[in-house]
Amino acid sequence: MDRFEANVQDNQERFLAELQEFCRKPSIIAQDIGIDETAEWVSDRLRNVGFESRVISVDGGAPVVYGEMGSGDKTLMIYNHYDVQPPEPLDLWDSGPFDAEIRDGRVWARGVSDNKGPWMARVQAIEAYQQEIGDLPFRIKWIVEGEEEIGSPNLGRFVEENRDLLDGADACLWEGGRRDGAGRPVISLGMKGIAYLGLSVSGASSDLHSMNAPIVGNPAWRLIWALASLKDENENITVDGLMDHVVKPTADELEYIRGIPFDEEQNKQDFGISSFLKGATGPDIVKQLLFDPTCTICGFLTGYTGPGLKTVLPNQASAKVDFRLVPDLNPELVLRLVREHLDRRGFTDVNVELLAQLWPYRSQVDHPWVQASISVARDIFGAEPVVYPSSAGGGPMYQLCGTFGIPGISGGGVGNPNSNLHAPNENIFVEDYMRSILYTGHLIQAIGNL
């Protein structure tokens, strides 16, 4: 691999210029800016490397770029996205969000870390690999979507409509990846899901004077009582049957979480709290964070809360509640369990609606391709990788990896602890970018040798 590494080093200036070119293309899905043009650019770049690439239209959504190349008895799926977050507030950027300036050893641009840098590094790694080593040792199927930043609402439908095209992969190299504050590479192997519910109760035909409270029901109290039945004062979810579907972490997963750094005192200080829920300390904090489902009241709306007094009996009350899901929970199951739970307690008047959903997914930590990615990260970064069996947040990993029953591996990316994802002054270090190219090339070689 010496020739490959020399190629990457020799082409650093060109690779960075190409990254800047990509980052200077606004592709803001929330504002419908530059989506179609960027999809065509991505497809052209894949084609230039040797992929059979095309832009696939998705009815009512952003196009998906699909590229395929290579042959053999092994297949790697790759997932990335070309859309970015809006750059606002613009006045907090030190340079234009789409100027892609290089200064102080970093590239500054919206999307450079999430997710244009990781995608471009992979493309350039494949280009250099072919130039110096030869043909890819396996087939690659590459999906680059344009709606990740709004929750990938059409990715599942794209997968269903193109199942025959996508089937046959052994693993998926997921988007993202970063190093932590100590310079250790971070590898994530799963994501939580989400069931985002809207609950509402209606009462009288209009708001009434509160003097009617002795004879007219109050929707606010009805909803408060209903919500109180979902979780107890010890922070346990009490929805009938929900916890029966929770898969406990394996011994291997528990071993990996012992290696995940978590500064208890610093996090308590940052959060402004005196302790963690259930009195958790040490590895138990990380275990709860990654493996426990949640039930969170995100907001509650009813009545009058403005200045002064208003003696009112409200006729409407609503709340939004998110359940963060772990295997084997799923959004439809949670919706059904909550509905049945409330009905058993007489809350048939509480309306429950599923507003957004993502399924959870967790990969096998002992899968050979997972272990190969850990080994390559250790060699390229010169530090022991920090392996997350799951992330605490959500994403569309299930829609690809779960559908085809393959591990999803997020690692070797370009991010750093201060990359400012979704915030002004998003950035990556040039050194991390070049290292990510090396990681991808060495991972190709390692997988080919399995």
UniProtKB/TrEMBL annotation:
Residues of the Peptidase M20 dimerisation domain: 192-345
GO BP annotations listed: lysine biosynthetic process via diaminopimelate; proteolysis
SUPFAM superfamilies in UniProt: Zn-dependent exopeptidases
GO molecular function, one term: succinyl-diaminopimelate desuccinylase activity
Matching InterPro entries: Cyt/Met_Dipeptidase, Peptidase_M20, Peptidase_M20_dimer
Top-level division of the source organism's lineage: Bacteria
Keyword Protease: yes
Keywords in alphabetical order: Hydrolase, Metal-binding, Protease
Pfam families to which the protein is assigned, alphabetical: M20_dimer (PF07687), Peptidase_M20 (PF01546)
Gene Ontology CC entries for this record: cytosol
UniProt xrefs under PANTHER family: BETA-ALA-HIS DIPEPTIDASE, DI- AND TRIPEPTIDASE DUG2-RELATED
Protein name: M20/M25/M40 family metallo-hydrolase
Lineage, broadest ranks: Bacteria, Bacillati, Chloroflexota, Caldilineae, Caldilineales
